[in-house]
Amino acid sequence: MDSSAGPHGASGPNSSSLPGNGGPISLSSSLPINSSSALNSSPPHSGSSGLTPGAHAIAAAQPLAAQPKVDRSELRKAKAISEAIDKALRADKERLQKERSAKLLILGPSETGKTTVLKQLKLLYGRKGLDVERQTYRRVVHLNAMKAIQALSYGLQKCNIPLEKPENIVHLETVMRLETTLKRYSITSIGFTNPAIPRKITDAKAETDMFLDMVPAIKALWADTGIQECYRVGTNINLQDSAQYFLDSVDRISEPDYVPTDDDILQARVRTLAVSEHYFNIDSVLYKIYDVGGQKSLRKYWAPYFDDVDGIIFMAALSSFDQCCEEDERMNRMKECVVLFNSIANHKLFADTAFILFMNKIDVFQRKLDAGSLVKSHFSEYDGPNDYATASAFLHSRFLQQCKDTAKQIYTHFTHATMQNTK
Ligand SMILES: Nc1nc2c(ncn2[C@@H]2O[C@H](COP(=O)(O)OP(=O)(O)OP(=O)(O)O)[C@@H](O)[C@H]2O)c(=O)[nH]1
Ligand SMILES: [Mg+2]
């Protein structure tokens, strides 16, 4: 996972350093978190008399034989003192826990790579959890491959590109006939359920059988130069970024004993439908990390998590400069992302929150520039050359300009979130 960083420093906005090649992202070094004291350092309490733990301590200090007849006012006083001690102990424990933990939110529009960053963290710090989910990803991979070829098939019509081999029309029809079935098999968040959001019914065996039936059609279509042309020029055909990766791997992923690799998991696309909570212990600090669904209709679920946030990772896809929003075809994706960044960066609850901005999908961005997609066609105010360094700096500045507090630190990383880290 490439990254480069630079604070949007106290000297004013836009002072971030520009894209380059940095090391792997270290959350603990990116955030101002104190890690000097221990978690759960208060001793456990026990007892069944109804007295508070503090009262137990006081009672234990009184020699039994010397206790006079019960004086109710003295008892009340002792109880009040014990409660005060307990309150102080609790506050101290909470303070210690807070010092040793950090709450992070990963925010941003849909498909910017929020869940992918989380998967990277799991690969680095919670591999066990990912291994438990590995088999589930088999279905996701199969669905992703089917959806990719389907999007390209529809894209062919949208872009008015003919098939190279007319005999492939039969495969095109097979793929398109499966549209409603595929919709039914959409997978929602892996490993997390929010009772407020119904999960779609899924059937792993049916999905795999359907995929295996489709393999000949997928292979024939993907080899057709008409489909390849559609892949190259179709920017608004709703194609996931992992399309090529999975379509190139059809032989491997259709093996009977196929088990998804780490790369497959990073590339697999599962739309997040709710807010999911994850825990990571990194350098003795407990990170509570929240991954949210980025679709517009799901942003109403974010607000309840806005209290006591230590840091925000805001994800933007650099490659989205020439795409429109899924929910509104008239809206440019990156412009919509900038508007969202404005509302988050200037939110009153985040006045003292550390901010990390990930300008993600640099690989796709580079590929688009190489293929001739012009930044100027979507941002008319841009008059620089259509190269990576200048164009990415320009797009980055669109974000930094949004911060009303010019002293706010915004640490930027230019990332390729599907690239594996070597720790
Ligand atoms: N090529 C490339 N693909 C990426 C990159 N980052 C993420 N992806 C892919 O983009 C797709 C979407 O990524 P997700 O992490 O699911 O996006 P998200 O922001 O969680 O989306 P929602 O859950 O809908 O909010 C996945 O197929 C990822 O593998 C990247 O840097 N480069
Ligand atoms: Mg997600």
Structure description:
The chain is α/β, with parallel strands linked by helices. Among the domains are: 103-112 and 294-414, Rossmann fold (3-Layer(aba) Sandwich), CATH 3.40.50; 134-267, GI Alpha 1, domain 2-like (Orthogonal Bundle). It has helices at 27-30, 53-61, 72-99, 114-125, 127-158, 169-177, 179-184, 204-223, 225-233, 243-247, 250-253, 262-267, 333-345, 362-370, 388-400; strands at residues 101-107, 276-282, 285-291, 311-317, 354-360, 410-414. Helix 2 (53-61) crosses helix 3 (72-99). The longest helix has 32 residues, at 127-158. Bound molecules: guanosine-5'-triphosphate and magnesium ion. The site of magnesium ion has 4 residues, from helix 4. Residues 1-54 are annotated as: Disordered. GO terms for molecular function: G protein-coupled receptor binding; G-protein beta/gamma-subunit complex binding; GTP binding; GTPase activity; metal ion binding. GTP binds at residues 111-116, 241-242, 266-272, 291-295, 360-363, 417.
What is the name of the CATH architecture of one domain?
A: Orthogonal Bundle
Molecules bound to protein: guanosine-5'-triphosphate, magnesium ion
Distance between the termini: 11 Å
Mean pLDDT: 80
Number of contiguous helices = 15
Number of strands: 6
Outline: globular
What is the CATH superfamily of one domain? GI Alpha 1, domain 2-like
Tell me the helix content. 40-55%
